[in-house]
Amino acid sequence: MKIVFLIDQVYLHGGIERVLSIKANYLAKNAANDIHIITTEQQQNSPCYDFNSAIHFLDLGINYTRNKSYFHPKNLLKLPKHISKIKHVLKQIQPDVVVVCSHSTDTYFMPFIAKHIPKVKEFHYSKSIEVKKRKNPKSTFKKQFLKFADYVETKYDSLVVLNKDEQAYYASSNTTVIPNPLTFFPETKTTLEKKIVIAAGRIAQVKGFDLLIDIWTLFAQQDPQWQLHIYGDGPKEYVASLQKQIDANNLSEVVLLKGSTTQVKEKMLDASIYAMTSHNECFPLVLLEAQACGLPIVAYNCPHGPSNIVSKENGILVEHYNKEQFAEALLQLSRNKDLLQSMSTEAVENAKKYTIEKVMSKWINLFTTLKK
């Protein structure tokens, strides 16, 4: 089967890029599959994740201005070139299916070109963030744009969402639920001996690391022996603001901004609890990775990812933005080794539901159905 994946780039570390590498590599292992990844702004950079050598890469060289909206005039001027190039490439490849991975410009025109080729659109964010905008759009343009986006979505052969809760946000009935697959399943598990809580992800406001630092201020007053290790990269100014917050709260010896790492599995195996304080999530792969390592999870019950992964058997869901309750949850686990151990065991069992084989069987079934 010939499958084309469309994405803006694969040189920056991110959840979408990592999941794409897992899916594409799995499909490429089967010699009967011909996998193509087409980017718009790779800019001659090497992929940040490992990809099977059988996968074909092609960059269209559109190079949108990333610090501006895709609908800024500067970027809209590049749209005709983008459409023309992708039409040409698809005509050459003649794929059985096209998958739009990232939420970029091609999202809005792909259903209307090469109409004989089935199209799939993946959504890696929670549409809950649109609820307020839809109820009270700030402008006529925004109102009409949301209607246009809904219309475009109906033209895809399938919209892939990451959990069943997300389906309620789509006006069309062409949604399919396929969760993210685990990136690894280690043979060994955490010993739960080290007093380390870990958090990882893009260092961005949506991830709520500033909230986690506030929580740690409360937690450290009760249990100063534990450390919080935060892994990830982000804008220098924002990282600096977090470090300033850490220093201002006298937490510099117990809250550590560790930067990005290619050894997230090893870092998780070296910890005892995973913490998440995001404002919103869709299906956070990092929680599954943490569970695969045997880490109990404490997470805000934000829309809509954590509640689809975390249960009372394998972690603690905290009322969104309740910092005191979050600190209490951390204390509950830090002081109860038996509870920590039982949740660790259940976390591993839950992670087994999301192995690459189980998740990719859903993708292959979808592709096979669309190809008919």
Can you walk through the features of this model?
- It is a single chain.
- The chain contains 12 helices and 13 strands.
- It is an alpha/beta fold.
- The chain folds into 2 domains: 2-181 and 355-371, Glycogen Phosphorylase B (Rossmann fold); 196-353, Glycogen Phosphorylase B (Rossmann fold, 3-Layer(aba) Sandwich), CATH 3.40.50.
- Strands 3-2-1-4-5-6-7 form a 7-stranded parallel beta sheet. A 6-stranded parallel beta sheet has the order 10-9-8-11-12-13, sandwiched between helices.
- Helix 6 (209-222) packs across helix 10 (323-334) and helix 9 crosses helix 11.
- The termini are close together.
- The relative contact order is 0.11.
- The model has no long low-confidence stretch (mean pLDDT 95).
- Residues 14-181 form the Glycosyltransferase subfamily 4-like N-terminal domain.
- Residues 188-347 form the Glycosyl transferase family domain.
- Pfam families: Glyco_transf_4, Glycos_transf_1.
Summary tags:
six-stranded parallel beta sheet; Rossmann fold; 37% helix; single chain; Glyco_trans_1; Glyco_trans_4-like_N; alpha/beta; Glycosyltransferase; 372 residues; 13 strands
Counted up, domains total 2
Number of strands: 13
Kindly, what is the distance between the CA atoms of the first and last residues, rounded to a whole number of angstroms?
12 Å
Could you name the CATH homologous superfamily of the largest domain? Glycogen Phosphorylase B
CATH class (first level) name of the largest domain? Alpha Beta
Strand order within the widest beta sheet: 3-2-1-4-5-6-7
Largest sheet: 7 strands, parallel
Strand content: 15-25%
CATH topology of the largest domain: Rossmann fold
**What's the alpha carbon Rg, rounded to whole Å?**
21 Å
- Structural category: alpha/beta
Q: What CATH architecture of the largest domain do you see?
A: 3-Layer(aba) Sandwich
Output the helix-strand order: EHEEHHEEHHEEEHEHEHEHEEHHH
Q: Enumerate the spans where pLDDT stays under 50 for 5 or more consecutive residues.
A: none
Residue-averaged pLDDT: 95
Helix content: 25-40%
